[in-house]
Write a structure and sequence with these properties.
Blueprint lengths: L17 E4 L9 E5 L4 H10 L5 E4 L4 E5 L3 H11 L2 E5 L5 E5 L4 E4 L4
Parallel strand pairs: 1-5
Antiparallel strand pairs: 1-2, 2-4, 3-4, 5-6, 6-7
Helix pairs in contact: 1-2
Length: 110
């Protein structure tokens, strides 16, 4: 029998996906890096809503790079699968977007 919070629940802990802005793409173009646990529906949406020339899986960086022009689309896609997404490196500070429509400014702890 596994108790709540035990080893069987380790993978079920909530994770907040991050989008790091200002990451150059494979050809030096302006873009962002999405770091998110692999969720089949999210990956399917990324692959079908962002043209392949404007996104690439970057294993060495641990995420998906996408063109900066798709930022709003990616935030919408992530919020379909997760309750929030944290944008890093945006003008005015880091921002936490929530599925309920709230946006909070986050201060860095480091």
């Amino acid at each position: 029998m596994n108790l709540p919070g035990g080893p069987a629940d380790a993978d079920a802990l909530p994770v907040t996906p991050t989008v790091e802005c200002g990451v150059p793409g494979p050809r030096g173009e302006s873009g962002c890096l999405l770091r998110v646990p692999p969720v089949e529906a999210l990956v399917w949406d990324l692959e079908h809503e962002i043209v392949s020339a404007r996104r690439v899986r970057m294993e060495e960086k641990g995420g998906w790079w996408f063109a900066a022009s798709y930022l709003d689309t990616v935030v919408d896609i992530v919020l379909r699968s997760f309750p929030s997404v944290l944008l890093l490196g945006t003008e005015g500070g880091d921002r936490l977007f929530s599925r309920d429509g709230r946006t909070d400014v986050q201060e860095r702890l480091f």
